Amino acid sequence: MPTKSKFNFEYTYLNLPEEFYERVSPERFSAPEFALFNTKLAQELQLPENTKHYADLIFGQPQKKHSFFAQAYAGYQFGHFNQLGDGRAIMLGEHQTIDGNRFDLQLKGSGKTKFSRRGDGKATLKSMLREYVMSEAMYALDVPTSRSLALIKTGEPVYRQSLHEGAAIIRIMQCHVRIGTFEYATHLVSKDATHALLDYTINRLYPELAQAKNKPIAFFETVMQNQIELVAKWMKLGFIHGVMNTDNVAISAETFDYGPCAFMNTYDPKTVFSSIDHNGRYAYGNQPQILKWNLVRLAESLIPLIDEDKDTSIEIAMASIQKFDALWNKTYYGSMLLKLGIAKNERQYFPLVDEFLKLLQTQQLDFTNSFAALVDEKIDLNKNFTENENFITWQNKWKNTIEETSSFEYAKQLMKANNPQVIPRNHLVEESLNLAVEGDFSLFDELLEQMKSTYSYTEDKPEKFTAPPKPKFDKSYQTFCGT
Ligand code: AMP
Ligand code: MG
């Protein structure tokens, strides 16, 4: 097959009112160098496979006409409303595949825009490597996510308390519209702008809603359902996003903005790693409640469009939001039950999930490995645990439920498909990033390679990739935003 040499770009976002964007060019870095390129992803999306095309696109002659732009948005950051926007990213274009799928190609770490506020518009190599490895790992874990197409070393230093190597990443998403884009439209532009944004987003992501009786509400409920499914997947894997501000919640329900995210080792709902999350607002166990809070912000942004009469609008929106808890429980427990090999998503089985988690918490056990051990008897569960009376009682109940609902054989299949053997453990991610910054990508590549077969159970995975760190590691481990 001939390799693609062309982008199939459109710029439909520029049909929105001009308040939604700023046309901007990337900074002309002195010595850009493609350090990573995701050929498989390029092939899947029918994008050029030679980095030369990207270099030409981004760093080519400025007289070449292009329509790059930065998006305006707002957002509640740790509960406080702020006007934001792409402060260090620009949209390179919306690429269309032959089957009509559309993807945003965004360059992050591209230099200042009018939304940069006091920032430098740049990113360090380590933080972009982190985004690359975490997003590709999430993809391997079957979680909807932004993807990483390329990592470019800019050849320029970035100052973050000390000097670091600079980098930019080409990130791909179905669409970068966020809850924060709706907040921006409603609170900082106009009702007409919100209307235009709603029509745009429906057309782009949820065209089936174009004929809905009440479009804003149908839209809200669809986003709610999709976001619930997304966050339930995070919970299922022990993923902690770390900065669930409304500007980081995509309407497409893709995970994105991999700054301070991390994976939980020992099960504890209070787990939080982000250095700035002093109150644990975005701790593992708070994510469902924060999602609900964020969705209420989306509903608020849609109030002017739901009904002519504001009170009626609020009433209708409230009725939708009130569906959250039941929808969450159904989706969350449904996916956690799959981890236990139980396909019947019925309320009577929900306690099995809570009881197992409670046992893990009490015994301070590893979340991922404890579920994997249920699949594979070769994995030793801690003896304190397996010989514990409470565990034995639970285990009997669990086995009876499996017999009642299907068979052990079927349960095993379900469990394999829902319990990864390998996750990007914090200590391994850090080690691989520290090496990669020095030019040694061996561990970085190996980690991504291991991730690709994380659900296969065809062979024993190297202990290096399955063993949790010493508990001491997590106690002092911290992640950082926007570095
Ligand atoms: P984040 O925490 O990554 O979601 O970023 C929040 C906001 O800060 C977004 O509007 C970013 O574009 C902006 N931002 C983050 N880092 C920088 C930077 N180095 N320079 C300019 N803007 C930034
Ligand atoms: Mg962000």
Would you give an account of this structure?
The chain has helices at 39-44, 51-59, 125-140, 179-189, 191-205, 215-237, 287-306, 310-321, 324-339, 350-363, 367-375, 383-386, 389-405, 408-418, 426-437, 442-452, 463-466, 471-476; strands at residues 9-10, 21-23, 33-37, 69-71, 74-77, 80-83, 89-96, 102-108, 147-160, 162-173, 239-240, 262-263. It has 483 residues and is of the alpha+beta class. Among the domains are: 9-173, no CATH class; 188-330, no CATH class. It has a six-stranded antiparallel β-sheet with strand order 1-7-8-10-9-3. The protein has a two-stranded antiparallel sheet with strand order 2-4. It has a two-stranded antiparallel sheet with strand order 5-6. Helix 3 (125-140) packs parallel to helix 16, helix 4 (179-189) crosses helix 7 (287-306) and helix 15 packs across helix 16 (442-452). The radius of gyration is 23 Å and the shape is globular. The two termini are 40 Å apart. The model has no long low-confidence stretch (mean pLDDT 95). The chain binds adenosine monophosphate and magnesium ion. Residues 247-248, 257 line the site of magnesium ion.
